[in-house]
Design brief:
40 strands; 24-stranded antiparallel barrel; 14-stranded mixed β-sheet; mainly beta; 740 residues; Immunoglobulin-like
Length: 740
C-alpha cells in the first residue's frame, strides 16, 4: 500500500510541480570578511553583482496570467551564519511608492512591500514569511495555503530598504538559526517572492506563475540551488521579563482598592540542531500590550474565537493547525510553567507542548444551541501533541490531547487522524476525525468534578476546485453532542451540516477587473434530526480600480432555529459591502451592511433589524496612523405598530499611532461599547442598558525581537444601572524584556 501511495505521489508531483526557473544562491567564502554585506538596502556591493539574477515575475492582480508590468530582480547569497536576499523593485513612477510608517506585523495591502515565502522542506505545504514595506517596516510569521498568514510568530532577522533612481530595494539578512530545517535533507529549499504595489490598481506579482484560481500558491515556489553545508550547531536564547503594575479599583458603594505588583518571568529557547527547538517558560507574563477590538456579542449564543498571541506558544504553531480547532493554546489560560518540543524534518513535523494551568480558569462546555462555561476549581495539566507526515502531495497527520484536572477532578482526552491532499494546482481535499473521552463533568454550581465518562466524535471533510471559469466547494461536519475538547476550541456540538458554494467567473467586464456570480447554501440538523438552519444565497462579487471590491447577496428564505424547543423561523435578508484603497492618506475604507429579519436570541422572537460596520485606515500625516472602526446591531419588534426597538448594540474603536522614530511609537486607543434593551419586550430580566469604555496610552521602544520596553496606562469604566454598580479600574504598568 505504501509503495502505491509513493508511486501515486511521485506521479502527481511531476504533474503539479512542472519544471520551473530556479534561484541560484552564491556562497560567500570566509576570506571575504566577517561582514561582507553592509545592510543598507542599496545592493551596491560587488558580491550582489556576482550573484545570479532571478527576474521573471508574473502578475496575478489585477490581471491574471500575465507577465509583471514592472521589473523585479532577486539575488540570493549565503554564508556560514546568514541567508541574504536582495530585491530591486523597478518603478516607472517612483513618486507613487507608498512607503507608510507602520508597526511591526502591520504591513498591509495599501503599501508597497516585498514578501519572502521560505519553505526549507521543499514540500510546498507551509512556509516562513518575511515581509518588508518600502519604509523598512517588517512583518513575519507562518503561511499555509489552507489557513493563510499567521503573523503572531516573530523571528530574529534584519532588513534594510533604500531608494534608487527608478524604484526601491531591500536587503534581507536572515540567520539560519531563525529557520527550522533539516540539515541532512537532500531536497532543496523552495522560495516564492511576492511584490505588492497599490496605485490606481493593486498590482500583486509573484516569482512563480501563481493564479487567482489556484488553491496552492506555494506549489509555484522555485528551488534554491547551490546551498550546501548549512550550519547545524547549538543555538540558545533566554528572555527575562520584568513587569511592574499599580492598579486601582473603584466600584460604587465599596472602598477603593489599590495594589502594586512586580513579577519576573523567563522564556528560554534551545536548538540542539537546525531541525529541533525546545522552548520553556517559567512564571510567564501573558498580559496583552495590544487591546482586543470590541466585538458585537450581545445577540449571539456562542463563544468567540481569539487568536493566540503569546510568544511561548507560537513556535511551530502551524503544526497544530488542522481543519478543526482541535488544539487552541488559548485554552491554557494561566500557566505557571510550560515546556515544548518541536522537530521539523524533510518529510515530517512533530510538536508536543505541556503546561500546568492554574486553578480558576474557564472551560468551554459546548452545546448544540449555545456555549456554556465551567470553572476549574483546581489546577490542571494540559498536553497537546501533533505529528504530520508528507508523502508527495499528501499530508497525513494525527493529534492527541490530554487535560487532567488535579485532586481527581477528572480528565478530557481527544485523539484522531487527518489528511490534506493537494490533488492538483486548483483542487484540494481535507478530512479529520476526532474521538473524545471525558469524565470531568459540570456540577450544579458550574464547577468541574469527576463524573461519568462520556464519549463523542467530530468528523470533517471538505473539497474545493476552481479554474478561470468556475469555482466549487463543499464541506461536511458531523459533531456528536457529547464531544468535548478542553484543549481546543469548539463552541458548538451536536449537529450535522453540509455547506456548498458555486461561483461563475466572468473575468474582466468593462471597467471591472472581476465579475463573479455565486450561490452558497447550508443545511444543518441537530442530533435529533431537527432543522437548525437552511440557507440558499445567490450573490454577485466585483473587483475594480483602487483595489476596490463590492458584493451583494440575497437570502430570500432562511430557516433558523436558536432554541431546542423553539420555533423554526423563516427569515429574509440582504447583505452588501464594499472596500477600496483610494490613496496614501486614505489608505483603506470598508463597510458591510445586513438588513432584514433578525432573531432576538434572548426573546426567541423574530424582529426586523440588521447590522453595519465601518472601518478605515487613515494617514493624515507621514508619522500618524488612525484606524477608526464602528459597528452597530439592532432589532425592532415587528409585531408592534411603531416597530419599537427591542435591542441595540454599538462598538467604537479609534486606534491612533504616532511613530516617533523607527523604533519608538506612542499608541492611543479609545473604545466604547454600549448595549440597550427594552425590558417590557422580554419575559426574562434584562439590563435596560450597559456600557464599557476603555482608554489606553502605551509608549513602546522595540530594540529587537524579545527586547522591548513598554510604558502604559489604561482606564476602564463600566456600568449596568440597576444590576451592576458603576466601576472604574485603572492600571499603570511598565514591562521590560531583553533577549540574551
Amino acid at each position: 500500500m505504501k509503495k502505491i501511495l509513493l508511486a501515486l505521489s511521485l506521479f502527481s508531483s511531476i504533474t503539479i510541480y512542472p519544471a520551473q526557473a530556479q534561484f541560484k544562491a552564491l556562497h560567500l567564502n570566509s576570506n571575504e570578511g566577517l561582514h561582507p554585506i553592509k545592510l543598507d538596502g542599496k545592493l551596491d556591493e560587488k558580491l550582489w553583482q556576482e550573484a545570479e539574477v532571478f527576474d521573471k515575475f508574473y502578475q496575478t492582480q489585477p490581471f491574471d496570467k500575465t507577465l509583471a508590468h514592472e521589473r523585479t530582480e532577486v539575488r540570493v547569497l549565503y554564508d556560514s551564519r546568514f541567508l541574504y536576499v536582495g530585491i530591486k523593485g523597478f518603478d516607472s513612477d517612483p513618486s507613487q511608492i507608498r512607503d507608510s510608517f507602520s508597526r511591526r506585523d502591520k504591513v498591509s495591502i495599501d503599501q508597497d512591500f516585498f514578501g519572502l515565502f521560505i519553505d526549507p522542506t521543499g514540500g510546498h505545504k507551509a512556509a516562513q514569511v518575511f515581509y518588508v514595506n518600502a519604509r523598512g517596516t517588517v512583518m513575519d510569521g507562518i503561511y499555509s495555503d489552507t489557513s493563510g498568514d499567521d503573523t503572531a510568530p516573530d523571528y530574529e532577522f534584519s532588513v534594510a530598504t533604500a531608494r534608487f533612481d527608478g524604484g526601491w530595494s531591500a536587503e534581507y539578512q536572515i540567520p539560519f538559526s531563525s529557520i527550522a530545517y533539516d540539515k541532512q535533507s537532500s531536497t532543496p529549499w523552495s522560495l516564492l517572492v511576492m511584490r505588492n504595489m497599490t496605485r490606481d490598481q493593486r498590482y500583486r506579482m509573484y516569482s512563480g506563475q501563481v493564479t487567482r484560481a489556484t488553491s496552492c500558491n506555494l506549489c509555484f515556489s522555485d528551488a534554491i540551488t547551490g546551498m550546501q553545508e548549512l550550519p547545524s550547531g547549538v543555538n540558545w536564547s533566554a528572555t527575562p521579563q520584568l513587569v511592574m503594575r499599580r492598579t486601582t479599583d473603584d466600584q460604587a458603594g465599596t472602598p477603593v482598592k489599590s495594589a502594586r505588583a512586580t513579577a519576573l518571568s523567563l522564556d528560554m529557547k534551545y536548538r540542539p540542531n537546525s531541525a529541533t527547538t525546545i522552548d520553556a517558560t517559567l512564571n510567564p507574563d501573558f498580559s496583552q500590550i495590544e487591546l482586543d477590538s470590541p466585538q458585537l456579542s450581545g445577540n449571539t449564543r456562542f463563544s468567540i474565537f481569539v487568536q493566540e498571541k503569546r510568544p511561548f506558544f507560537l513556535e511551530g504553531a502551524d503544526i497544530f493547525r488542522t481543519p478543526f480547532n482541535a488544539i487552541s493554546t488559548r485554552s491554557i489560560a494561566d500557566p505557571d510553567a510550560g515546556l515544548r518540543y518541536t522537530q521539523r524534518d524533510a518529510d515530517k513535523d512533530f510538536s508536543i507542548v505541556t503546561a500546568r494551568d492554574a486553578a480558576g480558569g474557564l472551560v468551554l462546555v459546548p452545546n448544540t444551541y449555545y456555549t456554556a462555561y465551567a470553572t476549574s476549581p483546581v489546577a490542571s495539566m494540559a498536553t497537546d501533541a501533533r505529528a504530520n507526515f508528507r508523502i508527495g502531495l499528501l499530508s497525513v497527520g494525527a493529534i492527541a490531547t490530554d487535560r487532567t484536572y488535579a485532586e481527581g477532578k477528572g480528565y478530557n482526552r481527544v485523539a484522531g487522524p487527518d489528511f490534506v491532499w493537494q490533488m492538483d494546482h486548483n483542487q484540494l481535499m481535507r478530512a479529520q476525525l476526532l474521538m473524545s473521552s471525558t469524565n470531568a463533568q459540570t456540577d450544579v454550581n458550574g464547577n468541574l468534578v469527576r463524573g461519568t465518562t462520556s464519549t463523542g466524535h467530530a468528523a470533517y471533510f471538505d473539497w474545493s476546485r476552481g479554474n478561470d471559469q468556475w469555482g466549487v466547494s463543499a464541506s461536511l461536519r458531523d459533531v456528536s453532542r457529547d464531544f468535548r475538547a478542553d484543549n481546543g476550541f469548539f463552541s458548538q456540538v451536536g449537529f450535522r451540516s453540509i455547506n456548498s458554494d458555486l461561483t461563475k467567473k466572468f473575468g474582466r467586464v468593462g471597467a471591472l477587473n472581476e465579475l463573479n456570480v455565486y450561490v452558497s447554501g447550508e443545511y444543518k440538523l441537530d442530533s435529533d434530526g431537527n432543522i437548525m438552519s437552511k440557507t440558499f444565497t445567490p450573490g454577485v462579487r466585483v473587483a475594480g480600480p483602487y483595489d476596490s471590491s463590492a458584493y451583494i447577496n440575497i437570502s430570500p428564505n432562511v430557516k433558523n432555529r436558536v432554541n431546542q424547543n423553539g420555533d423554526l423561523f423563516s427569515l429574509a435578508r440582504i447583505a452588501t459591502g464594499f472596500a477600496a484603497s483610494p490613496g496614501k492618506a486614505i489608505a483603506r475604507v470598508a463597510m458591510d451592511v445586513t438588513m432584514g429579519d433578525v432573531i432576538d436570541i434572548l426573546a426567541n422572537r423574530l424582529g426586523r433589524g440588521g447590522s453595519y460596520s465601518m472601518s478605515a485606515k487613515l494617514r493624515p500625516l507621514d508619522r500618524l496612523e488612525l484606524e477608526p472602526s464602528y459597528a452597530v446591531s439592532w432589532i425592532n419588534d415587528e409585531h408592534t405598530r411603531s416597530g419599537e426597538r427591542a435591542y441595540m448594540e454599538t462598538a467604537l474603536q479609534i486606534n491612533s499611532i504616532v511613530h516617533l522614530t523607527s523604533k519608538d511609537t506612542l499608541r492611543v486607543i479609545v473604545q466604547d461599547a454600549r448595549t440597550t434593551r427594552n425590558p417590557e419586550m422580554y419575559t426574562i430580566t434584562v439590563a435596560p442598558e450597559s456600557s464599557r469604555n476603555v482608554n489606553s496610552l502605551v509608549y513602546t521602544h522595540r530594540a529587537g525581537v524579545g527586547t522591548a520596553t513598554y510604558l502604559g496606562w489604561t482606564m476602564t469604566r463600566s456600568e449596568t444601572p440597576g444590576l451592576v454598580a458603576k466601576r472604574k479600574q485603572a492600571e499603570l504598568f511598565a514591562k521590560l524584556s531583553w533577549q540574551i
